[in-house]
Every structure is written in structure tokens, then in C-alpha cells.
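Homework help board

Subject: predicted structure for assignment chain

Our instructor gave us this sequence and asked us to write out the predicted structure in C-alpha cell form, then describe one feature. I got the C-alpha cells but I'm not sure how to describe them. Can anyone check?
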Amino acid sequence: MCALSNEQNGQLVVKWKGLVLPVLLDITDDWQVQAVTEHRTKYVRVLRREVNGTDRWYTQLVQEGRSPRRKNQPVGSDVIGLDLGPSAIAAVSSADAILETFCPEVVVPTAAIRRDQRKMDRSRRATNPEAFNADGTYKKGAKIQVRSKSYQKTRAKKADRERKLAAERKRSHGELSNRVIAQGATIKTEDVSYKSWQRGWFGKSVGKRAPGMFVEMLTRKAEAVGGSVTAFSTRKTKLSQIDHTTGICTKKPLSQREHVFPDGNAVQRDLYSAFLARFVNDDTLDISQAELAWASAEPLLRRAMSRDSEQSVRGRGFCLPHVARGNADSVRTACTRNPKRCLCEVVDAVAAVQAAVGATKNTKQKAKRQEHREMLLI
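My C-alpha cell output:
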């Protein structure tokens, strides 16, 4: 039996199987004090977490009612339109527009994780040879029974690395959801299947960015403040294909990231879909409302596009190793499509360095061949 009590000199304690554990409550945190004192404790859970290969035990209090809001987290009254992708989000309200990548701080050490996985696989094969065929394939129904200390140490290191990534991802999603709710708690977005993204072409992006986790967290926080997250049909609305100025739907490939209007002006595709999502009611787009709001929304969308372009040049631009591997032509082609991401000067500099290094290598190789010939003649 695990229960919360205040019988220990007026201090909150958790009693479990003879153990009396004091609750570490930060009295300077108004949220913690309000959650414990103003809400009844329904359950007390005992949780086990593995940190650096060591089991650590925690108690989790499940309080009754809705979670209190922090004073520094405002709640807006606007209607927000969202357009979510496997790795990016576009959010548009009447006062602001956001276009950014999910969890930009999360950097997955892919090479390190791959090395740990290979090391664990080699250890399993060495300690359990009876579980594998002669050609290296796994025997169906066989069990891995022996796990060496090296295997356990590597597995604990890999699990701890993934634990830190999950914690950073959750923190980043929490900050982004608070920013969205600060504009408005009435949120409209497309009804998409995040599992299908994971099973399809975007498995790595979904695993790294977790858009479904963000929607779940956003829904919970919006409902806690009296708002809602409404999902409408993608097939009926077709926001990424429709043009509100003409009412015509034009199918676009995924590679086309801009919506071009009949007058030649273009706007980022995800931002435009998020803008239109604000005016969807009962799976129907209200084009007249979109036309009235477009004049004031267009500058917001263009400002969000410029911020995204600046971030792309600084941190998410082209990778120089790709240029060094001979992809300079593709970089120049992209520069003609988007001059703000122009890296032609960098490409030319890398090409000059490559030419100099190549000339030096050729000179050294010629000198070695000549020295080898002279030695044969002697």
C-alpha cells in the first residue's frame, strides 16, 4: 500500500512497505504548492527509472482535477491554424505566424548509436552462437540467453543516451506548445496519421521529431485551459492544393514547397495551409473569411518565411561535405531557386581548395613513381 500522509511533523511523506519517504517540495514554486495543497491526491505511483545503468526509484503523485497554470504562461483568445509535417510545424494566428523545425535542439548522435548497436550485435553473436545459422542469420524461435558484462554496459550507455534525447524532446515540445497556446487555445489542424508517416518514408524524421507527441501534449494543455484542438478531414478540405483567390484546386507534388498565386506572388506552402486552416468549419473551408483576412495575414507569412530562410542559412543550410563529394551543381541549382540561401561563393572556394589539393597529390604521386623507376634502374 502506497499512500501520501502528513503525519511526520506536519511534513508530507509517502509511506510504502514500511518506508517513510519525505516529499521534496519546492515552496518557492507556486505551481507545486498549489498542485499539492489545493488538489486531492488520488494515487501515488512508484516508478523505476534507469539512469547510467543504475535503477532509481521515484514516487509520482496523481492529483485530482486540472493542472494549474503557471503565472508566466499566458493564454491567448485567438484561433490558431496548424499545418504539421514529419519534422516541421507552421502555426498562423491573426497576430503572428511560426514556421520552424520540431525540436531544433535535439541532435541525434546517429554514428554513436550505430556503433553501439554493432557492438551489441557482435557481443550477442559471440556469446550465443547456437542462436544463429552458419550464414549469420538468426534462427527462428531461438533465444538470446547469455549477455556479457560488456553487452550490458553498452546497452545501458545507449539507453541513457536515448533517455536524454527523449527528455530534451519533451522539453522542446512543451516550450513550443506553450508558445502556441499563448496566441490562442482554439486550434485547428488536419487529421493526419502519424503512424503512417512512421511506417512510410519519414520514419527517421518522426522518430527524431515526434510530431504525434507534440499534438498529444498540445491537446492536453489546450483542454486544461478551456480550449480545444479540432482535427478536420484532409481529403475534403485539400488546403495544400486550393487557392482561395480563385477557388481552384491544383495538385502539387511534395517537392513543391511554395504556393504560387495567379498574379505570380508565392508563399510558403505550409504557412498558407495553416492560414486556411483557421477558416475551416465542419470540414468546409470558408473562402469568404479567408479573403477578408488575407490582406493582414500576408505580411505575417512573409515575415515567417524570411525568418525561416535566415535560420536555414545559419544552421540548416547545405552541408559542405556534400559539396566536397561533387554535389556543387545541385547547390547552385538550389541557389537559383532561392537566392537567400545562396552558397555559390562557398562552393567556388571549396572547388578551388579541391583543385589545389588534387594538384599537390598528383605532384607527389609523380615524384614517387619517378623515384621508383630510378631505383629499378639502379
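Reply (TA_rk): Your C-alpha cells look well-formed. For the description, you could write something like this. The two ends are 92 Å apart (CA to CA). That's the kind of observation they're looking for.
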